[in-house]
Write a structure and sequence with these properties.
By secondary structure, the chain is an alpha/beta fold. It has a single domain, classed as P-loop containing nucleotide triphosphate hydrolases (Rossmann fold, 3-Layer(aba) Sandwich), CATH 3.40.50.300. 49% of the residues lie in helices and 13% in strands. It has nine helices and seven strands, in the order βαβαααβααβααβββα. Strands 2-3-1-4-5 form a five-stranded parallel sheet, with helices on both faces. A hairpin with a 2-residue loop joins β6 and β7. The longest helix has 18 residues. The radius of gyration is 17 Å and the shape is globular. It starts with 8 loop residues before the first strand and ends in a 6-residue tail after the last helix. 36% of the residues are buried. Keywords: ATP-binding, Nucleotide-binding. One of its GO terms (cellular component) is cytosol. GO terms for molecular function: ATP binding; dTMP kinase activity.
Length: 232
């Protein structure tokens, strides 16, 4: 039986094709089977949020290519989407529940920060984005980020096998189809793991093949137990 610490916020993140949705759902189901209060968020909220629907337009390329749109402007819809459920998240955490999110502000830091080649400009942007998300919008701060590491080439192969995503309306995802963006965002994620103590990298590949989902899930469980977020 799992025992839950009070009001914890767990984020599952990773590059495109890394299995974030699968692992988030497995973890949520583990909590539910143990009768622990848990709430699942899937960001961006493409179907239920005004701002999430705007993100979908961006990913469909309606505002231009991945390089055309300023990372400052692109970040706004993602951030506003999260801010729209801020109160809901705060209330659930205050009652001692655990939130498990598939992506969060962490994804914005990686994918938009990856667009900067100049390190000084990148740092300036990351500070701006952190202030926007956590100080202006005051969204809840995550306790731990589980970063699912899948090399971008393997992630691209896995993406190609996925079913079409309805929010794309048959169009390609401008982030997923840009090899340059995949490479840069992977490097940015690894930089964030190295710089942030509450980020933990989970290697999801062995011998250039994705590990079984159950093996990856157990790795995540072991990390959460070791960090004190779960206990038997």
């Amino acid at each position: 039986m799992l025992k839950q610490p009070k009001g914890k916020f767990i984020v599952i993140d990773g590059g495109d094709g890394s299995g974030k949705t699968t692992q988030t759902r497995l973890l949520v189901n583990k909590f539910k089977k143990s009768s622990l209060p848990v709430k699942y968020y899937d960001f961006p909220q493409y179907y239920s949020s005004f701002h999430g629907k705007t993100v979908a337009k961006f990913l469909r390329g309606e505002f231009g290519s991945i390089k055309d749109v300023s990372p400052y402007l692109a970040s706004l819809s993602y951030a506003l989407d999260r801010a729209s459920v801020k109160k809901e998240m705060e209330d659930f955490l205050a009652r001692g529940g655990t939130i498990i999110a598939n992506r969060y502000a962490t994804s914005n830091l990686a994918h938009q920060g990856a667009k900067f080649k100049n390190l000084a400009r990148r740092e300036e942007f990351l500070k701006w984005l952190y202030e926007l998300e956590y100080k202006i919008h005051k969204i809840p701060k995550e306790n731990i980020v589980i970063y699912l590491y899948v090399p971008w080439r393997i992630g691209a192969e896995l993406n190609a096998r996925e079913e079409d995503k309805k929010y794309l309306k048959g169009k390609p995802d401008i982030a997923e189809t840009s090899q340059d963006h995949r490479i840069r965002s992977e490097k940015m994620y690894l930089t964030l793991v190295a710089k942030n103590r509450h980020w933990v990298k989970v290697n999801c590949v062995k011998d250039n093949k994705i590990l079984p989902k159950e093996v990856i899930h157990q790795k995540i469980m072991d990390i959460l137990k070791k960090k004190g977020y779960l206990a038997l």
